[in-house]
């Protein structure tokens, strides 16, 4: 077994930095909103998406949804959806799959 856990430490580094930033949010709602955006961003990265392009895409699409969208309306916007446009995806090396 490895003596260190560098991989695990790198995986949570961004969260630790974000946690420190949320400490100084002006309100609980502001901290919750920051955490939500962070969660969406990290999930996009883990799914091979460019966070800025992905957030721009889903915000544009969400403005056209009903006030209380159904699950079926939201599913195409999730980061692992096949319908996410190519400009939101990072380039993958040849021979790798999704």
Written overview of the protein:
The protein contains 4 helices and no strands. The protein is an all-alpha fold. It is flat.
Q: Please tell me how large the radius of gyration is.
A: 16 Å
Share of residues in strands = under 5%
Overall, the morphology is flat
Q: In DSSP terms, counting alpha (H) and pi (I) runs of 4 or more, how many helices?
A: 4
Distance between the termini: 30 Å
Low-pLDDT regions: none
- Encode the helix/strand succession as letters: HHHH
Structural class, from secondary structure content? mainly alpha
What's the helical proportion of residues?
Answer: 40-55%
Average residue-wise pLDDT = 82
List the keywords.
98 residues, mainly alpha, flat
Short description:
With 98 residues, this protein is mainly alpha-helical. Helices cover 53% and strands 0% of the residues.
Any chance you could write out the topology, listing elements then pairs?
Layout: H1 6-22, H2 28-46, H3 51-62, H4 71-74
Helix pairs in contact: 1-2, 2-3
């Amino acid at each position: 077994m490895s003596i260190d856990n560098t991989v695990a430490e790198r995986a949570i580094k961004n969260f630790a930095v974000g946690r420190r930033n949320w400490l100084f949010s002006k309100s609980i709602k502001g901290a919750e909103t920051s955490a939500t955006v962070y969660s969406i961003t990290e999930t996009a990265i883990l799914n091979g998406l460019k966070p800025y392009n992905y957030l721009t895409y889903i915000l544009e699409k969400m403005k056209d949804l009903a006030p209380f969208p159904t699950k079926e309306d939201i599913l195409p916007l999730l980061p692992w959806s096949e319908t996410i446009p190519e400009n939101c995806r990072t380039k993958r090396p040849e021979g790798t799959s999704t």
